[in-house]
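Before a colleague's protein record goes any further, I have to sign it off. What it holds is a sequence and that sequence's fold in token form. My question to you is simply how this chain folds and whether the tokens agree. Thanks in advance; the entry in question is below:
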Amino acid sequence: MTSSGTPFGDLLGPPPVLLPGDPEAEAALLAGENATIVAAAHPSASVAWAALAEEALDDDKAITAYAYARTGYHRGLDQLRRNGWKGFGPVPFRHEPNRGFLRCVAALARAADLIGETDEVARCRDLLDDCDPAARAELGLA
């Protein structure tokens, strides 16, 4: 907690957005289902796109990772807006269903870095910092 008594320190700012998640997609991934199958069955689930992007990064496929991460990022933006987000304000990492979106942003930053898209890297880092100041550290993104 900050001195203002809230986790993000801004009593006048918007409340944190807590996405509802996609329990079926999350359960399938936890059960070891192939992320491609999960994304096809649950195309709005950012968590599935994050898994695909992270797998592609692990396989040194930066362009593929970029495409998967960008898809999950946009699906996440849609979900955030449907849940009251106005393009700014807290999206806490501690809330598990928010992590799919945040993982996509981090994967997009990594993929963009690999292909030399420095402006995109900076935008992604700024977005993570705006969503949750702890997100980059939690996601291993310096």
